[in-house]
Amino acid sequence: GILLKFREFFGLLNAPRRDGFVSFHTSKYRLHYLETPSGLRLVLNTDLGVGSAREALQHIYSNLFVELVVKNPLCPPRAPVQSLLFRQRLDAFVRSLPYFGPR
Amino acid sequence: MSRSPGRKQENHKISRELFVLTYGALVAQLCKDYEKDEDVNACLDRMGYSIGIRLIDDFLARSAVKKCRSYSETADMIAQVAFKMYLGVTPSVNCSSATGNEFSLILDKNPLVEFVEELPEERASLCYCNLLCGVIRGALEMVHLAAEVSFLQDRLKGDAVTEIGITFLRKPEDRKHRR
After folding, report:
1. Model ipTM value
2. Is B142 an 8 Å CB contact of chain A?
3. Which long-range contacts does A20-24 make (Cβ < 8 Å, 24+ apart)?
4. Count of A–B CB contacts within 8 Å?
5. Model-level pTM?
6. B137: containing domain
7. List of chain B residues whose C-beta atoms are within 8 Å of the C-beta of residue A61
8. What domain count does chain B have?
9. Which SUPFAM superfamilies has this protein been placed in (chain B) (predicted)?
């Protein structure tokens, strides 16, 4: 399956990043990570068959997070996201990704 | 939010005038709420700050710029990309200190004052566009740059130009955040 989460645990990823995107993999899964200059970190875990999820993460940031959370006056900035609409759109987007496969 | 692509230009023009008029109404209301100019200025700055901390994400998403490597690059980014994107004007940038952390943006044309001729006498210290200072300050803070932003000159007060001063308060090496 695919998990989407926003959290901070990247002690190991202090290496300088060119455009904020990093991807690494273990034998079990691949992790895609996008960091914005404003300090927002987006993480996507996929299985090993996925090459690069950079565009997906960029879309989630630009078209979902900014439009539905940042611009929503009822969502406090940098607080856990409560917006139901955001969760629904995010879920729909992830499900629409070509590499999403239900288990 | 869906917009029909054909009408994009028209929508932007209409909403800009509405925005300018709304801003004027906002300042007028604040002047009624507060007696002192300093209080109005502080309130505009706070509002601008709240806008700036959110606007930065919209800016980053739409402009897809990478991290700036220097204060000078940051000031250029604000003037040439951000101002252009949101207000349709491009102020010129001056570096006004040898240490390289003080800049000023010179605005030839300020869309926010399109319908304002001059400040009333009893509001001589009012920084009409102080919201902009707050926006810049808030946006910079979200990319981990502390700055002081204020109006150095203001055409509405009789100065020759409108000039916004940005003073960066920390060195770039301190920008690495530890959370």
Report:
1. 0.77
2. yes
3. A20/B66, A20/B67, A21/A54, A21/A57, A23/A52, A23/A53, A23/A54
4. 41
5. 0.82
6. 16-168
7. 57, 61
8. 1
9. Ligand-binding domain in the NO signalling and Golgi transport
